[in-house]
UniProtKB/TrEMBL annotation:
Pfam families: FecCD
GO cellular component terms, semicolon-separated: plasma membrane
Stretches with biased composition (Low complexity): 16-26
Record flagged with keyword Transmembrane: yes
Name of the molecule in the record: Iron ABC transporter permease
Keyword check for Protein transport: no
Membrane topology per record: Multi-pass membrane protein
Keyword tags: Cell membrane, Membrane, Transmembrane, Transmembrane helix, Transport
Any one GO MF annotation of this record: transmembrane transporter activity
Length: 363
């Protein structure tokens, strides 16, 4: 998701696309050297491979690296260790998928709003998806991710639109703090609706509590297959977003003057962010703070070029999520703490620091 294609909505007139690219990606004080970005990304990929090995090897039963490799390459091996490794493979794959999607979704939201506090959880997008999923479970009888993904997308989209409308007051672009407050209010309202639907239905309450906390345990490949098209569409849209976000970072007037269709660009990028967040929520529940922490950590290394921010987010997002999941398995072994809880413990202090830091007033 490096965003190497021309900016979305750039007018097809001579020199316009080149002008947008040159201005949006011109070296500046926040731009890291290309070698640092490339070698750093390679190191992050190595760390991600190590996190995948830890994810399939560590749990209530720890499996040595040699046995992990044997279990993955030799189907005839049927030891307890081999079965433990194989049962954790879907969980690891889901962690990769959800971590990358939430991180990219957060980076896209921060880019189109130029709001450093934007995140699918903070802006109420995850809460909107969760509320619609619960309504589908209670009143329509839906019982799998492939069935209620459409409701998750609808809920996420409506929540995002409502937060933007409330945060901006219907006029222009909202400030970062107003948008975050609108998201918090919207999340509270949607969570109350969710609880109101659940309370009279004790048979749903226990299973939903586990899903609501956000977790990747119990992952199954058949559930991922039904939702995969939504991830793919969101990923394709994100690929074409990096250069357009660089243009938006110059300001709406400058971007429009360079030929960018600002409204259409924001709509397409918002669709990518909502699809990725909704698909992740449908599979793993509302996991927060991944989309907040990862883009900020990445920008500290690669600078402000959104093409690199998106590329790094694809790697650093699942790295963070898998490490958090492994930590949740270890601290209360043999039981697990769901990764959504671990991410909340990590992310809440980061959110407070960002709110108090005036340097993050706007991207």
């Amino acid at each position: 998701m490096t965003g190497s294609a021309p900016a979305v909505g750039v007018a097809d007139r001579p020199g316009t696309a080149d002008a947008v690219t040159d201005v949006a990606t011109a070296p500046g004080p926040s731009t890291a050297p290309r070698g640092v970005r490339r070698w750093g990304l390679a190191l992050a990929l190595i760390a991600l491979l190590a996190a995948c090995a830890a994810s399939v090897g560590i749990g209530s039963r720890t499996v040595p690296p040699a046995q992990i490799w044997q279990a993955l390459t030799d189907p005839s091996v049927s030891t307890i260790a081999a079965e433990a490794v194989r049962s954790r493979v879907p969980r690891t794959v889901l962690g990769l998928l959800v971590g990358a999607s939430l991180a990219v979704s957060g980076a896209l939201m921060q880019g189109i709003t130029r709001n450093p506090l934007a995140d699918p959880g903070i802006l109420g997008v995850n809460a909107g998806a969760a509320a619609f999923v619960v309504i589908g479970m209670a009143y329509i009888g839906l019982n799998s991710a492939g069935q209620y993904i459409w409701l998750a997308v609808a809920g996420a989209a409506l929540a995002a639109a409502a937060v933007w409308a409330v945060g901006s007051g219907g006029r222009g672009r909202p400030s970062p703090l107003r948008l975050a407050l609108a998201g918090a209010v919207m999340a509270a309202v949607l969570t109350s609706i969710t609880q109101a639907v659940l309370l009279p239905r004790a048979e749903m309450l226990q299973s939903f509590r586990t899903w609501q906390a956000g977790g990747i345990e119990g992952a199954r490949f058949d559930q991922m297959t039904g939702v995969l098209p939504f991830f793919l569409v969101g990923a394709v849209l994100a690929v074409f977003s990096g250069r357009a976000l660089n243009s938006l970072a110059l300001g709406d007037e400058m971007a429009s003057g360079l030929g960018l269709s600002v409204g259409r660009t924001r709509l397409l990028v918002a669709c990518a962010a909502v699809l990725l967040a909704a698909a992740s929520t449908a599979l793993a529940g509302p996991i927060g703070f991944v989309g907040l922490i990862v883009p900020h950590a990445v920008r500290a290394v690669v600078g402000a070029d959104n093409r690199w921010v998106l590329a790094w987010s694809v790697v650093v997002g699942p790295l963070l999520l898998l490490v958090a999941d492994v930590v949740g398995r270890v601290v209360t072994r043999p039981t697990d703490i769901q990764v959504g809880i671990v991410m909340a413990i990590i992310g809440a202090p980061v959110f407070i620091v960002l709110v108090r830091n005036r340097k993050f007033a706007e991207l």
